[in-house]
TrEMBL record:
GO terms for molecular function: ferrous iron transmembrane transporter activity. One of its GO terms (cellular component) is mitochondrial membrane. GO terms for biological process: iron import into the mitochondrion. Its main location: mitochondrion. Keywords: Membrane, Mitochondrion, Repeat, Transmembrane, Transmembrane helix, Transport. It comes from Rhododendron griersonianum. It is found in: Mitochondrion membrane. Belongs to the mitochondrial carrier (TC 2.A.29) family. Gene3D superfamilies: Mitochondrial carrier domain (1.50.40.10). This is Mitoferrin-like. Solcar repeats lie at residues 31-120, 127-211, 225-315. The keyword Kinase does not apply. It is a multi-pass membrane protein. It comes from the Eukaryota.
Length: 328
């Protein structure tokens, strides 16, 4: 009896001391959840602001309608020349405020959800492409709910001869004339487009990043992922995913711009109905309208986004490391 009591006493005294010295564990990759949100928000904002003029060209080329002036020019060079001649460089940035309001919060949700599910689904295997793809799909469903209303506003402002004075005016008039539901008419199409886009994007990004690191092991160590690797892998992933999902992006643009500047108005948000209308008027080639600016947007945008995101993650990892060292 006496022996048992003596043995228990030191153990009880030592245990609390051990707990107090231990810093709180990070969630994943050495980062806390809110840090993923900040890193994603910064990355998304930088990406969309930098590539906005190319996005304007894509919208103009895709917003086709029987009497729509924005769709009369389908060639990339002609479209750019037309905007610069008639509206000046400012015409390429019309609607950027709407994207600024939507991109930050949407990407904060996007990357934090992606990292959370990647950790949960990978089962300890960092090279699990299926887990990366599934995480990307789940992340995009969540982030699309945040960005879709602002994307509608942004695209309507980008149209040539847009009747709206700005973000506030567009939001107010859409609510009054079409109802709040108008902001989400393209949500289903956006998810159907972005789910495969994100699956291809994330799986390709992780695979390309791994391949590039294996290709030159002398310059890139196993744990040392350089900016060039992130940018190159991001560009490859963005370009491939953009090319394969262009038809659905055309459908999304049609739904978001319907009834504005001569664009068709659809009785339902059915993807099939919109596709049939496009094919009937422009043939199957109409479904690939804007694929060049879309690829030109997503390749560098993905490179910018991923390199900014990874740089922000590295900043937080270093910050957490310094904080942990000071606790020790």
């Amino acid at each position: 009896m006496a022996t048992t009591t003596t043995t228990a006493t030191p153990s009880t005294k030592f245990h609390p001391t051990e707990l107090t010295l231990s810093p709180p564990p990070p969630s994943h990759d050495g980062l806390l959840f809110w840090q993923f949100m900040v890193a994603g928000s910064v990355a998304g904002s930088v990406e969309h602001m930098a590539m906005f003029p190319v996005d304007t060209l894509k919208t103009r080329m895709q917003a086709i309608g029987p009497s729509s002036c924005p769709s009369s020019t389908v060639n990339l060079r002609q479209s750019l020349g037309s905007i610069l001649k008639l509206e000046g460089p400012a015409g390429l940035y019309r609607g950027i405020a709407a994207m600024g309001l939507g991109a930050g919060p949407a990407h904060a949700v996007y990357f934090s959800v992606y990292e959370w599910f990647k950790k949960s689904l990978s089962a300890g295997n960092p090279n699990n492409s299926a887990a990366h793809a599934a995480s990307g799909v789940l992340a995009t469903v969540a982030s699309d709910a945040v960005i879709t209303p602002m994307d509608v506003v942004k695209q309507r402002l980008q149209l040539k001869g847009s009747p709206y004075k700005g973000v506030g005016d567009c939001v107010r008039r859409v609510v009054v004339e079409e109802g709040v539901g108008a902001f989400y008419k393209s949500y289903r199409t956006t998810v159907v487009m972005n789910a495969p886009f994100t699956a291809i994007h994330f799986a390709t990004y992780e695979a390309a990043k791994r391949g590039l690191m294996e290709l030159s092991p002398e310059s890139v160590g196993e744990e040392d992922e350089t900016l060039v690797v992130h940018a190159t892998a991001g560009a490859v992933a963005g370009a491939l995913a953009a090319a394969l999902t262009t038809p659905l992006d055309v459908v999304k643009t049609q739904l978001q711009c319907q009834g504005v500047c001569g664009c068709d108005r659809f009785s339902s948000s059915s993807i099939q109905d919109v596709i049939q209308t496009i094919v009937k008027r422009n043939g199957y080639g109409g479904l690939m309208r804007g694929w060049v600016p879309r690829m030109l947007f997503h390749a560098p945008a993905a490179a910018i986004c991923w390199s900014t995101y990874e740089a922000a993650k590295t900043f937080f990892q270093d910050l957490n490391g310094r904080n942990n060292s000071s606790v020790d």
